[in-house]
Design a protein that fits this description.
The structure holds two protein chains of two kinds. By secondary structure, chain A is an all-alpha fold. In chain A, about 80% of the residues lie in helices and about 0% in strands. In chain B, about 80% of the residues lie in helices and about 0% in strands. The chains are: A mainly alpha, B mainly alpha.
Chain lengths: ~180, ~180
């Protein structure tokens, strides 16, 4: 598939729009950024998958890590900086203009009602994104076992993600030694 | 009250590097810095900020940083500097790793490929655990499940919603909002 380089304005606007409308935090946003870049042919799938892996395995907000890498891939440091600004600007503007309103209305019944519905929908959106991103990485019983072990450690035993990431990868390396994708 | 910008910067620099695996991981750290160690903010006010940060669009850490920087750093510049400092450390780490991945050759490249392959199921588990954190609040609310089902159908079947998936969330939010309004009045 042909790759297209977006103009700086288009790149900024597209990322800004995702950040400004994405409820639910970083994990959803990196999925949306991944999907958007793929849909618009900004980068090939394997590169985007790598960016996603790195975003998840680095400290700090995942969304800015993802937009930084996407920008860097598309147009070097200027685009990378643009990508981070596009993602960081919406919260800025929201709090600058609506901080008082938000504090006054956040606890009200109607606002909570809105977020209940949005939250129910978020599960579907995030589920689909995650299924699309990692469905393929769960082929073979070894991968499924490692996945199940890590998920249990994270969800049931509440072990810190960084420990799971390091130990999980080590165990996976030993398990899959010599095998390649 | 207003904190010194330098002190705020120190806190947010640490928060940036200490946050691992999603915004929720930064909360205990920020709670310790703003509520426990320094008497800047009460438990209740912190909880309010947390819900605002979770409910507004954007990454939760970024929202919290902007909000706390704005409130305790004296407005616009406080927010700007806090956000910049918080992002600095992580972006340096990402850039170093990204360049290492690009520049590596031969044996190193082989090992990186092997690690990349080995990490796949682990990354999937990290993603599923963040999915669980948003699923947990609705597990005990079966009245919300139809909305999850509706969203699934719209996201799979509708071209429009596939292109603008966030709108499905807004739609479902409006449905529950209308429902609450009708019941109320």
């Amino acid at each position: 598939m042909d790759q297209t380089k977006p103009s700086a304005v288009r790149f900024f606007f597209q990322l800004f729009q995702i950040s400004a409308t994405c409820l639910g935090g970083g994990a959803v946003m990196i999925g949306l950024l991944h999907g958007e870049a793929l849909r618009r042919h900004w980068a090939p799938q394997d590169k985007l998958d790598d960016m996603l892996t790195l975003s998840l395995s680095c400290p700090g907000p995942m969304a800015t890590a993802m937009s930084w890498q996407m920008g860097y891939y598309i147009g070097g440091l200027p685009f990378a900086a643009l990508g981070v600004c596009a993602v960081a600007l919406p919260p800025f503007l929201i709090f600058l203009f609506f901080a008082n309103w938000l504090f006054a209305h956040m606890g009200s019944g109607l606002t909570l009602a809105f977020f209940k519905g949005a939250g129910a929908s978020l599960v579907a959106l995030m589920g689909l994104i995650i299924f699309g991103l990692s469905g393929k990485s769960l082929i073979g019983y070894k991968n499924i076992l490692i996945f199940a072990g890590c998920a249990t450690a994270l969800i049931l035993f509440k072990i810190s993600p960084i420990i799971v990431l390091i130990l999980g990868t080590l165990i996976s390396l030993i398990f899959t030694k010599g095998e390649r994708s | 009250m207003t904190a010194g910008l330098f002190e705020l910067s120190k806190i947010f620099f640490k928060v940036g590097l200490a946050t691992f695996g999603g915004g929720l991981a930064s909360i205990p750290f920020l709670h310790d810095a703003f509520v426990v160690t320094r008497p800047w903010i009460t438990e209740g006010a912190f909880t309010d900020m947390l819900s605002v940060a979770q409910m507004t669009p954007g990454p939760i850490v970024l929202n919290l940083t902007t909000l706390l920087g704005y409130t305790y750093g004296g407005g616009f510049f406080g927010a700007l500097i806090s956000t910049f400092v918080m992002l600095l450390g992580p972006l340096v780490v990402v850039t170093i790793l990204m360049l290492l991945l690009q520049k590596s050759t031969g044996k190193t490249q082989q090992w990186i490929d092997r690690c990349r392959f080995a990490m796949k199921p682990v990354i999937a588990a990290l993603l599923v655990s963040s999915l669980w954190s948003v699923t947990r609040p609705i597990v005990n609310k079966p009245q919300l499940w139809p909305l999850t089902a509706l969203s699934l159908i719209l996201l799979i079947k509708s071209k429009f919603f596939k292109a603008y998936p966030q709108l499905v969330m807004v739609l479902c939010g409006l449905i529950t909002l209308t429902w609450a309004y009708v019941q109320h009045s």
